[in-house]
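This section describes the prediction task in plain terms. A model, or a person checking by hand, is given the sequence of a single protein chain and must write out its three-dimensional structure as a string of tokens. No templates, partner chains or ligands are provided. The sample shown here is typical of the held-out split.
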Amino acid sequence: MTQAINIIVLPVLIGLLLFLLPSALRVFKGLIAIGVTLYTAIASVSLFGTPDLIFNLGEWLLTRSIETPVSAALVQTLEAGSFSMDGLSRLIILFISLLAVLIVVYSIVYKSAGSLRNYYAWFLITLGFSFGAVLANNLLLLLICWGILGLTLYQLIDRKDEASSKAAKKTLIIIGASDGIMILGIALIWRITGTLNMNEITLPTSDLVRTVAFLALLVGSFTKAGAFPFHTWVPDYSEKAPATSSSYLPASLDKLLGIYLLARITTELFVLGDWIRFLLLSIGVITIITAVMMALVQHNYKRLLGFHAVSQVGYMILGFGLGSAIGIAAGLFHMVNNAIYKGGLFLTAGAVEQQTAKENLDDLGGLSKAMPFTFFAALIFALSISGIPPFNGFASKWMIYQGIIDFGAGVGIANKLWVVWLGLAVLGSALTLASFVKFIGGIFLGRRQKVFNNLGEVSPLMWVPMVILSLACVGLGVFATSYIVPELFMPVAGAFEFTGTWSSATVSLLVLVSIVLGILIYYLGNTKNVRTSDSFVGGEKLQEEFSFTTPEFYKSFQEFKWLSYMYRNARDKWFDLYDLMGRFCSWLGSLFSRAHTGILHDYTLWVFAGLVILLLLLIT
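The expected answer:
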């Protein structure tokens, strides 16, 4: 367990020391960060095969108090600092550390990360406290790490203008408010059980107090992961933050941490009733559909990816809402898959942004030949997130579909609606594919603008991490049923059998054969006689001057009568909980301001009315 404590303490200490180094030593600080993340990655891999255990700082100190006397108060304080290592925590810290290595290498030459003050210091502090949150067995210790991560999230966005400052403030307020709600849930758990150690807590959601405690922790999980209706900070943050920050936090670490907490509270801390499962499944499909519908109409590709970071959380919630072994395994598998391909997508967005200085799909196109590695990686990520075989996104979504079908054999109200959950989940995948046709087509396909004729690929320090992540999408998909799920996820979720004869290796082989046959047919055909020419209208060649951008095809979504109403309200922030609360506070403030008339009789009346209310409360 000492090695597990080291991966928490070392990144935090080194991160604090990096504050002392001048900004001119940015590359040196980056190399230090790479060294620290490599150490944590190696340690995480070595910890993966260790047995489950619980480490209590108070007990550890007592064993050494024979030689060095310590105060009882200090021991009692440290008893709250217990850490645990089990299959779930080992799985999460493994992928946190591996993703951190690739992102920090990418950051060395990524210009936007370089413009962010103390970027590597906050990067390492985020890494250390992420490990702390995952390994904490005590809810109070988890809450401390959780709260500090909200601060680092705020610090990893460059508040260079009003829009980015507003996005950072919105993120901090929403995350901070959810932390406050979590405190309520933790306090209720302490009141009910008398302990905050998670290994000692199992509560049925059978009464109001226990249900409120569960919902309070659920709010913290949903806000960190970016689920409806606490998701609105994610698209704003993704649009304004550097791509490395978006890849590191909303796309990767926050998803891993938020779903980690969801896994803890739904499988260990609480025993869920039928109506709680109905609530989870409802929120899951609402998150999928609403976010992907918003992604369809985005023109800023970073904001588009932000909405998809929200949409994919819905599939994870569906998995845990099912409560079965295959559902839990599918939720965890999709969590890992999403961190890989969504983190990679933000890295490809950062590469495009760095080379073109453009963030709008209307201003791009035809970059596939100029940036072949970025295009290859982006295409793999897009196919993966859309659930196309044989990639990893297909494997985890297929498991979720199977889990929903098996769930339909139950007798509860949520079980009877299995067709609804399945239909909306499949629809979400189809719409995801449609929006990524827009993403890939708008950036990499079509006619290239003349201003990008001399454009080249990014540095290998940027495209190598993207390619590694894309190959991971292939590997996790191809070996899903034969190795990945049985070895990584069944030990955490429990054993189950795949329905039918589906095998990821067989599917991969069939896809490969179809691709090879398609290439052979193409080259064996009469391709030499194909002629291409420019458009010739009225004596003028117009295609060189005019082109029809890919996003134009998606404007029709906003023209449907019932969809136009939804998009109009979304544009006016009627689905944004943060904005709605701001409007409510403004209305309440104006109401109180009107009460301040400056007339003594009115103030006397308010005081009298307040006293009457207090007396009534005391009497009752």
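For orientation: Residues 321-527 form one domain.
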